[in-house]
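User: Just a sanity check before I run the rest of the batch. Below are the structure tokens for the first item. I only need the designed sequence back.
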């Protein structure tokens, strides 16, 4: 049987999930990408994650490619408020116990719903699964600020959750959806790990199909076929196109769709001497107005993420920069728009816009491949 020409653009977990599924079904394709991993990005020494940092034990689809590193211990985290410093297990926590119990009940409920839809998401769009589940639908469209008020979690959020959550998505948690809020808090009830993603193992079966390049322009002929121009000056034609690029990029390449707002974040990876009051074993969380989080990595280096203001001198006495970079954007968390994964019969969009996370990106890539397979 002759197959149509298929091109996947983007080698993050969406593009790789799609490539893996097509390979399993013996369908040929070309994958054009700037890099492998996208927002799962390791430091040059292969020990520190600059993008996605944690996975939970519920991430069954990516787990075969994961080398687990350290178990997340919230007990080791330090919270800073001006001159004050406190830990999770402290007298301060006692007054929050009723709120914590109310929150834990919701997180367990949320997990049950997420686990159910993840099983179906290989063959059904996340949007359809969420919209047909009244619990998830409500929380996808409701801001976490409303949920926090309704569940009497304001004080608990102020003293503990907002600092930790800024570190997870770099904005005030009240501004994101309740589903994002609860999704990140799954780490409170499911064992979670820092990790090394073994991309070599994942791409081995289709490595020869990967081309390293940047797609700069896409046009269509009368025959509906796509022509892709790349930064290296090459031109590629295809019958079926999968754009597995983040939606801000996708919108520059094909007819734009309305998307959620992105959140930018900057980071330093440094070797250095941290100020004494921030010299802790693992994470230092700060009030959200400080827009900062510092993690002490297993090898003694530091990862410092910050929002608008670079305050490295405030936290460190001296430092040597290993890497300084930014994610622009890191995540699409502001708003509740969905994007359409198949805006045209031969154009597929595979990305983490509707549901973010490494596991969901990989599952979504499989879903898009299954849509294509149905058409062949
Ligand atoms: C700082 C940060 C922390 C995070 N923390 C976590 C976490 O702890 N746990 C978790 O589960 N998730 C986390 N995430 C989210 C997770 O990383 C993403 O949801 C997921 O990796 C998205 O995968 P993707 O394939 O959709 O997109 P991407 O990973 O962005 O992949 C897009 C791909 O497209 C390529 N590309 C872009 N433009 C072009 C072009 N013009 N031509 C060719 N190729 C192109 C890129 O090089 C890349 O390979 C985090 C993300 C960030 C940024």
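Assistant: Here's the designed sequence for the first item:
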């Amino acid at each position: 049987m002759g197959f149509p020409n298929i091109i996947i653009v983007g080698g993050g977990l969406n593009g790789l999930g799609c490539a893996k599924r097509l390979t399993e079904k013996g369908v040929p394709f070309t994958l054009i990408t700037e890099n492998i991993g996208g927002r799962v990005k390791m430091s040059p020494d292969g020990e520190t994650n600059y993008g996605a940092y944690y996975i939970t034990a519920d991430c069954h689809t990516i787990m075969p490619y994961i080398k687990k590193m350290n178990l997340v211990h919230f007990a080791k985290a330090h919270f800073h408020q001006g001159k004050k410093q406190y830990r999770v297990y402290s007298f301060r926590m006692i007054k929050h116990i009723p709120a914590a119990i109310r929150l834990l009940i919701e997180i367990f409920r949320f997990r049950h719903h997420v686990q159910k839809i993840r099983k179906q998401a290989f063959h059904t769009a996340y949007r359809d699964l969420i919209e047909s589940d009244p619990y998830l639908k409500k929380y996808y469209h409701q801001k976490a600020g409303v949920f926090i008020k309704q569940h009497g979690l304001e004080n608990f959020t102020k003293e503990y959750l907002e600092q930790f959550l800024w570190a997870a998505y770099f904005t005030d948690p009240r501004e994101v959806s309740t589903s994002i809020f609860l999704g990140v808090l799954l780490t409170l009830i499911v064992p979670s790990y820092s990790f090394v993603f073994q991309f070599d193992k994942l791409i081995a079966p289709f490595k020869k199909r990967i081309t390293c390049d940047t797609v700069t322009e896409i046009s269509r002929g009368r025959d509906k076929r796509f022509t892709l121009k790349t930064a290296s000056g090459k031109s590629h034609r295809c019958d079926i196109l999968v754009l597995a690029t983040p939606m801000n990029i996708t919108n520059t390449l094909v007819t734009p769709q309305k998307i959620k707002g992105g959140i930018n974040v900057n980071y330093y990876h440094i070797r250095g001497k941290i100020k004494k009051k921030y010299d802790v074993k693992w994470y230092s969380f700060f009030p959200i107005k400080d827009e900062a989080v510092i993690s002490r990595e297993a090898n003694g280096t530091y990862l410092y993420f910050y929002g608008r203001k670079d305050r490295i001198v405030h936290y460190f006495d001296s430092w040597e920069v290993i890497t300084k970079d930014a994610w622009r954007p890191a995540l699409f968390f502001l708003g509740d728009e969905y994007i359409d994964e198949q805006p045209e019969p031969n154009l597929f969009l595979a990305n983490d816009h509707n549901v973010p996370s490494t596991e969901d990106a990989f599952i979504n890539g499989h879903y898009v491949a299954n849509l294509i397979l149905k058409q062949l």
